[in-house]
Every structure is written in C-alpha cells, then in structure tokens.
G8 domain-containing protein
Amino acid sequence: MDIPPELPRTPVSRRGLLRWLAVGTAFAAISGEEILRRSLTGETRLVTPAAVVGTPPAGAAGPMGPGGGHGAAPPGGTGAPGAGPPEQPAPAPTVDQGGRRWSDRAGWGGGPPGPRSAVRITDKVLLDTDAEVGSLLVEPGGSLTFAADRTLTLAAAGNVEIRGTLALAPDGDHTHTLRFPGVDEKRFKGDGMTVVDTDVGLWVTGAGYLRLDGAAKTAWVRADRDLKAGDTVVNLAAPPAGWLPGDELAVTPTGPPDQDGFAARYDLVTLRSVSGTTVTLETPLKHPHPRVAAGGGVTVGAELLNLTRSVRVEGTAKGRAHVHLTSSRRADVRHAALRWVGPRADTKETWRGPDGTAPVTAPVLGRYGLHFHRLGDATRGTVVEGVVVRDAGSHAFVPHASHGITFRSCVSHETWEDAYWWDGPLDTRTPQQPSDDIVYESCVASRTLLEPNPRAYRLTGFNLGAGTGGKALDCVAVGVQGANGASGFEWPENSEGVWTFQRCLAHNNLQDGIFVWLNAQRHHVVTEFAAYHNGGWGIEHGAYLNDFDYTASVLYGNAGGGVALHALGRDKGSVFDGLLIDAAGLSDFAVSTARHELAGESVTFSRTRFTGYRRAGVAFRAGADGKPDDVLLLDCEFGGNELWLDPEAGAPKNILLRRTGSTEVLKVRRAGEEGDAQPKWNAAAAPVPTLAGQSRPVQVPALRLKDAAAPTTRVGR
C-alpha cells in the first residue's frame, strides 16, 4: 500500500467560506469568522434572521459527518472473513419524481442557492434546472433527485455528502452530471472514514443511499476482422445494445510486441452511426488493429470499449475528485461514467517527462475512483454494473474490506495505479485484510499506467487479493504499462485469496499476462486463460513455493515466451496441463525456468503443445546459486528441439521427459554425465525403467472467449 507524504495544510481562505442555507426556511448572512468557527468545531446550525431554529441530528458530528479512522470498524457488519452473509438486503428504494422543485424560489425562502452556498437538504427536492453550489449535504430523510426528463448538471465547489438519498436516473434521452469543477488536489489529506472538508468529492455516509442509474449499453464488443489504419467502418462480432451517435470509443491495441508502441496503440474515436453489427466512426483509425488467431479456439479482434454513459460524476483534468462510500445501506451504481477521479499528491522528487521536468506523485490514501470503504457485510448483494472509470489518478474500483460485491461489465481506462484493487498489507510480513465474495465478471482493465514508468514495478490491471469466494470471469486486461513484474492479472504475496479464474484474456501489456508472486498455503486453479502479444511472459510464475493448476490455456506470441517458472511446488506441486504455448517466432523458448529460492515439489507440464520457438521448447536456466530444477515433462508435443540446459545453471534435481505416444521416461542430466549425449539439448539422457507409464495424448485447448461484455440492466429492470 502506497502511503502518500503529508500534504501541506493550506489555511481556509475567507473567499472559500460558505453560508449555511436552510431548506424551506429563510436565512441570513453570517460573518466569515463565525462560519469558520462553526466549520472547525463541527456545528451545523440553521440560522434565520431571528434565531437558531435547528441542530444536527443526534449522533451527528457536524457538517463533515461522523468520525472514525482508516482502521475503524465497518459500519455494516463484522467484516470478519468467513462470517457469512447477514439477512438479505432490502430491495432498492423507489425514487420518485416528487418533492419541491429546486427552481421554486419560495422553497428556498426567497431565492435558490448559488455557487457560494452551502446547501443542506432535509426534505424532498427535485433538481429541475442546472445548478451550482458551494457544497451540499443531504440529511437522513432528505433526498435530491434529478428530473428524469431533463439533461441536468449540478456543480459543487466543495463536498457533496449524502446521508439521505441522491438519485441520478435519467430517461433514455437525457444525461445527468454531478461535477466538481474546482478541486484543489494539493489540499487533500486522505485516510479515514470521516468526511474531510478539503478532500472534495462525493461521500455516501451513515445510512445514505446512492443511485447512479444510467441507460444500459454494451460495455465492450470485439471487432470481427482486421482493422486497418484509415478505416471508418468497423464490423463487430455482436450487435452493441444502447450505443448512440456521439459515444466515445477506445479501440484497444492488438499488434505483436516487436512493433514500437505495441502496448499503447489505442484509437480514441467518436461514433457516427450504428446499424446492426456495423458502426461508422467520425474520424478514421490512426493505427491498425489486427485480428489475432492464437490457436486453441482463440481468434479475437480488438475490443471497442464504449466510454460514454448518461450518468456522469467527474472532476476536471486539473482537479480530480473521488467517490467514497461508508454507508450501511446498499448502493445502486449502474451505467455511470466516473471521470477525472483519484487525486494525487506531489512528492519531493521529480522526473523528466515528455513535457519537461515533472513531480513524482503519489496516490492520496483512500481517495479513489469508486471506493467501498470497510463496509463488511453491509455491501453483500451490491451490483456495480456497466460503470466506466477513466482518466483516473488512482485506483478505479476498490472494494476495501467490503464483501459480496459484483462488478459486471465495468471498464477502467487510462487509470494510474492498479485498476481493480483493495488496500494491500503494510509490509511483506503482514497479511492483507480480505474482501470476500468479490466478483469481476466481463470487466476490462485498459491502459493502466504510472509515471515514471520504471517506478511502476508490479503494476497490474487486476490485483487478485486476499479473501474467499472471489471470481474473475471473462475479464480482459490490455495495455497495462509498468516495469518488472507488471501484468494484466496479479496474485500478490501476503495477499492470498482463492479465486475462480476462468476465460480471462491478457494482451498487449507491456510486461506479463499473469504475474504470480505468492507463497501459497492453498491450491489455486487458472483455467481457459489466454495471453497474446504481451511484452514479457504469458505467465510469470513465482515466488518460492505454491500449488497452482493451469489448465486448457493458450499462450501466443508473447515476447519473453509462454511461461517463466520461478516457484517450485509446495505440497502437491504445480501443474500446467493441456496448454498450447506458441511463441510465434518471437522468443527463443516457450518455457524457461528461473532461480528457485527454495526446494519444493515437482512442477509438471503435461499434455501440452510447444511450438513457434527459436531454440527449444523448454529451457532450464535456474541459477547455480539457487535450488535445482525439478520439472516433469509428460506427454508433451514439441515443434522442434525439445530441451536446452543452460551451462550456467546448476545440476538439476529432477528433469524427466516422456514424449507423447511413448511409454519411455528419460532422465535428463548435464552434458557429460551418465547417459546418451544429446547435443541439441546441451545435456545427456538415460531411460528410467521403473517410471515407465501409459502415455496420454496431447490435449489442445478449445477455448471459447466471449466477444462482447455481459448484458446489463438498469435498477429494477
């Protein structure tokens, strides 16, 4: 977990001081000194020309909400792993279009609030006109609903805190926007469950209810053929529901990793028209996006990500806001676009960027795109569907110590830091706090980055952290930048979670498709995974000891090769069974071993086809300063020279080979040792009669990746 340096404590300026505005009540001007005193002491009194007529609800801590630090107990449940779900959550509330109208001057005691007003709502209010406020607090029992039949924008200079209800749910022809136009990221403090005056964004606290419910649309679809530079017409593999002229699309890179900029060749285009599976673009594509035939059933085109939604929550390119939920009531967040969120703080370091010297920045702790913060079981049953987080300075989707949340057909695009993530351990000796029953279904992490890139060590699209019952299904990681260990999907150390991981795809990432650096206590299964055109390995498997099964997967055209093997087995050993590893002429080896820190159980490659490599199918390169190789190659098929023993490696503990169609088992030793010389292998080999067994045929995968995001619906539909 990155902890930002302490931010400068900027004094509160008098220009920024706001008057409190009573709903349905006359109000009077108050001096700047008096408001400053109340802001700092937490008072939220309603004032008329005559007298104080109201006080905060019992138990409230003033305008900035209840206290509780970053490590406070979750308000919605125990949060204990394995505690099990509580009673089923109540259905989504009915949000009507009643209440007094924002534009009704009489309802505000003579005039609606303005851009320097601190608005407090205790009754039902219907926003029926564009509005600007200094800040907004919706109290328990109060609600602010945007009129469904109008395109509306509410701009807030300060925080919007929801203890009651906030609903943005336009009909199919209109757009609702909550905007924070004047965020000063330098004032952010971060951390905790308490609303912080300087940390401007959308806060849902207490028992507040948030509904962001835009028009449903297909989050992403793949092209069904090669796309060439200059194309303006794209044929899709499936008809895109809900796409409209004017929608903004990101077309993902697909080219091979020996091309310059292979991980960054995106096209950002505007949709002109849609007819069935054919879309026409306003401007031609700048880059080619070839369709890739990886084998094993995997033939896929570029993903076209739709980044436009009819509900929007956004800061600006110069001032990023955030969405922070600590409410004990389940939120409904669907088909919303969160843009310019995730603030960053300057550090004392600088780096030379493309536009000159720039500060090295750090994320502000706890201020992310969509952040469910320590809610325990209160979030069970929550569905976040069709949501886009883009142009974010920090993590996009964060279910931190919050259980039972399903993220379906969500998109992170142009996000700094790990896109799908929750808080990691403070150090390598401390286990991560778990989030249980988290589901990522049909989600995309696209162009995840950090600057300067050499510092983006272990950057990932999906950080598969601690917890039970996690699922990652039909997800895509593309365009992840970063340095050593960066990847589309990561299993990090000290953060062991058991995940159902199936039919996921990693392509055109600067480094690896999958990166495992986990000393696991449990057994893990990765099945029907595909990785193509990554700049490192399809799978880089470490760290020291673990038991993983990789089955029915395709690794194609990755610059490093198919598998880099660091870890040996813990109890039963790891198994790579029924894979197609095709180096596509881009790497010397399909599989290569690396330094083994600890002695462990054997790793087995079985019923696998190795092809497309330049020197050998499997290279044994574990350094002599580590533990020796212990690898079984059973019933595999090779498209050329089978093995190569690095002369710099130590003597192997155990390398056994049984060719497909043969019952003979060969034990492989270093060149010059006992056995028949195998010059192409730089090794010797001799039969091991006692290990002879029945050969099995190669099992070529037959993957069927989905060509479009899972369908989504609006709340209650």
Summary: Residues 513 and 535 are 9 Å apart (CA to CA). Helices lie at 32-41.
